[in-house]
Amino acid sequence: MLDKAYDRQPTLRARELRKNATKAELALWDQLRNRQLTGVRFNFQRSIGPYICDFVARTPRLIIEVDGGQHAEVEGYDLARTRFLNTRGYRIIRFWNNDVLQNIEGVVETIRQTLADMPSPTPPGNGRGFKA
Question: How many domains does the chain have?
Fold first, then answer.
């Protein structure tokens, strides 16, 4: 039997991260779930390639990361990760746990403004409609 074309490990790790989410991640998820923010659908703890992202909006290609103090120690890893995700067309914005917990309104407004400043998704085809 042939192996699956994808690796299940990132999916299993994402599931584990969802079960053990931080208070900051849960607070932000409360604001993003169910298309509450400008009608954009976000997924929580989703894998893109070998990396797991905290919040992913696939259509506008936006990733939101909520970082704890450990990220100050893994700067090289975060840089490589950001480059990988950027090459796939994603924009990444980061917030510290404390920012989310102490100023959720400001964090949500920053996300809202980022979404407003992003280009609209390109329609399928050339955007000119169907040829008769």
Answer: 1
